[in-house]
Amino acid sequence: MMQLSPAAASEIKRLKLKQPQNVLFRLAIKPGGCSGWFYDVSFDETVKVGDRVFDLNGIQLVVDADSLKYVDALTVDYSEDLMGGGFRFQNPQASSICGCGNSFNLNQDSLGNHQ
Known about the structure:
With 115 residues, this protein is mainly beta. It is 13% helix and 43% strand. The protein has 2 helices and 9 strands. It has helices spanning 6-16, 65-68; strands at 3-4, 24-32, 36-44, 52-56, 59-63, 75-81, 84-90, 96-97, 103-105. The strands form 2 sheets. It has a 6-stranded mixed beta sheet. A 3-stranded mixed beta sheet has the order 1-6-7. It is globular, with a radius of gyration of 14 Å.
């Protein structure tokens, strides 16, 4: 089960104020980044076939079917540092993470229960 920290939920709510009403927060895992995969967050107005909707801390978070296997037990946090603010991802399935924290790699054993 995924989790949103209170800081991440607060930031998403703040960002949603600038979006159309009833917009959904979407999290997807896409190939790329320095470590092989990266987290892509965006707002979306529709739930597509195969999407799973999670209600976390009052936020409707949508994950597509292909990304689900990569986000089991993922925690999304938000923090600010000297470089600015951003979402931080803590993924226990990641076998390595790049320095920015937004890109990760998995060994196949991590996905064994999800394929």
